[in-house]
From TrEMBL:
GO biological process terms, semicolon-separated: regulation of nitrogen utilization
Protein name: Transcriptional regulator
GO cellular component annotations of the record: cytosol
A GO MF label: enzyme regulator activity
Gene3D superfamilies: 3.30.70.120
Organism: Blastopirellula marina
Keywords recorded for this protein, A-Z: Phosphoprotein
In-chain residues carrying the UniProt-annotated modification O-UMP-tyrosine: 51
Amino acid sequence: MKQVIAIVKPYLAEKVLEELSRAPIEALNVREVKGFGRQKSYLDEYSESEYGQTFLPKVEITIWLDDYRAEETIRRIVQVARSGRMGDGKIFVLPAMSAGEAIDIATAPVSGKKRK
């Protein structure tokens, strides 16, 4: 199982999610994040925004999927999110536990405290 973390521009997040809705994935999380990469010297353009000169808004999409689906999923994300300009984002691929090994909070044993 793989964990794919895609950090994309906010205005492209919906398009990426729409494309991912067609892909067979186990689970997905989305969150708004702020940060910078190599484009930090170009932050002057955004100094009038609410984010100031430190961070740029991005959307982080975290996906869990089978190993053999990772390459196809990454290709779909790149196809939708690439503008060819600096700041398009990044994709990270990490190993992950299989769904069968994950701990389900609802059914996990509780140690130390008794439920009332």
